[in-house]
Predict the 3D structure of the following.
Amino acid sequence: MREPDPIVFVIDDDELIRDGIKSLLRSIGLRAVSFKSAQDFLLEKRIDAPACLVLDVRMPGLNGLDLQRKLREAQIYLPIIFITGHGDIPMTVRAIKEGATEFLTKPVRGQDLLDAVQKAIALDRERRKKRAELTETRKHFDSLTPREKEVLNLVVAGLLNKQIADQLGTSELTIKTHRARVMEKTRAESLAHLVRMAEALRNAKVE
Amino acid sequence: MTIAQDLRSNSHPMIRYGLAVVLVSLALCLSLSLRVPFGNPFWFFFPVAVIASTWFGGRGPGWVGVFLSTLAVLYYFIPPIRSFAVKPPDVPFFLTFVACELIANWIISWQREAEASLRRARDELEVRVGERTAELKSANDALLNQMAEQKRTEEALQRTRTELARVVRITTMGELTASIAHEVNQPLAAVVANADACVAWLGLESPDLVEARAAARRAIQGATRASEVITRIRSLINKAAPERTPVHLNEIIEETVALVDRQASRNNVAVSLDLMPHLHIVGGDRIQLQQVILNLMINGVEAMSDVSGRQRRLLIRTGMRGADEVIVCVEDTGIGVSTEDIGRLFEPFFTTRSQGIGMGLPISRSIIEAHGGRLWAESTPGQGSVFQFTLPTGGDSAS
């Protein structure tokens, strides 16, 4: 499956800046979509592609930081490049704490913006890959029977087949069969791989 | 305190009772030794011993004295001698003796009680007076503290007020500057973004002239907008000028002195006025002119805040310069301005103070010039500065 083309969302209330940035991004062959406000962006249908956000901090209505928070609440993890005027230091600090990817001061140099966008898209691509892997893994793990899940948990906890058999009150041979099924269903290449996948799923749940 | 009081109040009971025993024994010895020369039973020392025991030892030792004396008299002086028996003829004598002793004991005790209660009352009174004095003293202290506190609060309030006035001045200017900066920066950002895009479109292997042109157009729009912002600000400043009414400069100066008075006295600056009577009226914006004068005065006061070793004096003079110009001079004895700095004093954002923003003098100058006058400065570093401005007289305002 070929990955869709990356896309950059530009949100700025100033039409000239919006169009300028969009034009700059298109000139290097990037897809760019612009919005005049954060609200407009939130109304837009989500596109499944590696993406990032170029966001003006100071905007009427919902400002850049508000949008950042809203996206986090909605569990949309898009890398954000903030563009700020002067004298927004406290805002900058807040945005960075909330996980902004990059901070650029107005007027932004074209090359700086392009670099930041490339970096942000690479980051999102990476995150998307991880997410996809995780979804795949979860699907595999969900296909396990309850008994197999029990066996999986004990295997991951580091118990030997014999111990598992004792604990579940069955024969070692049965456990071996279950274990083989678990490895097969989860596409685990080794015990270490299985443990890593189980860990990743558990951490994702905690998050 | 008498010796008796001392004994009674301070001595151990053993000593007081012992004293009674000793006194009675002494009386017995004296009586026995005097029995031979006098012949008759000589018992008069016993009442004395009882009185002394009661007096020095208190009621208890007094009773002991009575008891011992009675035994001694019974044993040694009342026949049959050396026996505790009493013959009927001697009963009246014995009873009289006991009665005497009891009466002596009772009178002395009673007297002592009275004395003690008197003393207690006096002590109590002393304690009460002491307490009352302490109360008065603490009330007085509290009052003094309160007064000091109030004075401190007033001083703090005054400091805050001055500080507030200064902060308002700075923040108003700061906000203005920040919003101007934002207004100008925004279109400049647009210019940069679009110019970058334009360059990028032109730099492609096959340059996209349509996109490049569109970007260049937007860059031009941005630049135009920036220049419009500047024009708007300029017209805003100019627009403020036309308000023209007849203005008595002396009056404004007197009002303004009242405004800076506190700050001046806090800085130990003596403000003096040398105002020409019947000064010509000038035409202008009262508020703006007052702003200029206030600004010059505050500058003067602040220029002297680091001065020591000579008098801090702010002198404001008014007068005529030629027939049709009024002149106002604000002289300080501050640190002065160096020759190289004096030319830059009226440049925006030039300041010699750590907290100044360097807009006061440029604004003042533009106000005076809008009124058809001139504002300039002269200074001798280390001695002080003179800021003066001229304004055309009323003839102008009539036009």
User: Anything to note?
Assistant: Chain B has eleven helices and seven strands. The first strand of chain B starts at residue 245 and ends at 247. Chain B touches chain A through 28 residues (CB under 8 Å). The longest helix of chain B spans residues 91-203.
